[in-house]
Write a structure and sequence with these properties.
By secondary structure, this protein is an alpha/beta fold. Helix content is 28%, strand content 16%. It has one domain: 3-Layer(aba) Sandwich (Rossmann fold), CATH 3.40.50.1000. The chain has a 5-stranded parallel sheet, sandwiched between helices. Strand 1, helix 1 (45-54) and strand 2 (58-64) form a beta-alpha-beta unit. Helix 1 packs parallel to helix 5 (180-189). The longest helix has 14 residues, at 75-88. The two termini are 17 Å apart.
Amino acid sequence: MPRPAVFLDRDDTLIANAGLPAGAFAGGRAGDLADPAFVRLLPGVRGACAELRRAGFALVVVSNQGVVARGGATLRQVEATSARMAELLADPDHPGRSLLERVYHCPWHPEGTVAPFNVEHPWRKPSPGMILAAVDELGLDLAGSWLVGDADRDLEAGRRAGLDAARVLRVGPGTAFAGLPEAAAHILRSL
């Protein structure tokens, strides 16, 4: 039987990005975190992810990483950064395993300068490509799934993938959910 998922944005949903020092960003462009040394989970994220996993959700990260197309970092650096995040999200119930099922990156950006990544791509949010790839590759139940992100492009990708608009949650200042812990509590209450 297909499992539902919670699709998660990476930066400012799972790990801190806004407010990091300038040295944290590849190529000096704010927001382009590609250095594992600066990876910090946001407060309560590990516990929220553990609760969602215990409830039967696959946790799948879907993250735009146009820094690769712009030449500010390599795909290997982006993957190392996400690997550090996955390491920090160790599963307390299964030592040696991450709470994350899979991490998808979109290194493509049409304004990039590094081939072959300097093109538009169906994985680039707000397009739903990463979500749809995960549903197909992992055999997920899209109708029972949720998305949590901090930007309009995250929410739009979820809606375009076919998620019910009520299951697409925005986190951050000035929203109904301050962060992932509050969004996870809402998801768990809905079960």
